[in-house]
Amino acid sequence: MKTAIIYYSKSGSSAKCARDLYRKIPDSALFNLAIDTCDISKYDNVILGGGIRAGKIPSQLKKYISSNELEIQKKNVGIFVCCSDGSHANNYIENNFSPILVKKAVVCGCFGAEINPDEMKGIDRIIAKVVLKNIKKSGAPAPQINYAKIEEFAAKFR
Ligand SMILES: Cc1cc2nc3c(=O)[nH]c(=O)nc-3n(C[C@H](O)[C@H](O)[C@H](O)COP(=O)(O)O)c2cc1C
Predict the structure, then answer these.
(1) pTM of the model
(2) Which among 26, 51, 54, 56 counts the fewest CB atoms within 10 Å?
């Protein structure tokens, strides 16, 4: 079974997760929507992922899905998001992916996130600093990528 892992990552977390899935899923290929397009006709499985900003997945990922939705619906689908607030992960997935895709998905996952304001610019950097400050204030640990969840997710495509 061939697997296409299609992602868009603005600040690197979804890219890290996608690369980890790629290492863990045999016969998979990586497609970064910032530079690649993907013809999914050659694939049995399609994994779609991206980072959440203000409750939304990247517009590049959204556009790719709407242009290919019918084709994607014929595949074994996996959906992942990266976000700092895992308690809202289900809402993020339901609000950003069509009900058909969510229902059809073999697995939907939230892999957490790494937030490095120093690697960001402009408004992203400011918001990232505020997000980290609020997390620290609440006493919760700094967000990190959950590699165990990526492993569980990957197992569904082996
Ligand atoms: C401007 C901005 C807005 C964000 N909004 C949310 C949000 O609404 N919910 C959330 O859980 N995390 C939010 N985050 C955290 C991101 O989801 C996290 O940084 C993630 O790593 C982004 O994925 P990426 O690195 O692949 O772009 C936000 C981060 C930034 C910088």
Answers:
(1) 0.96
(2) 54
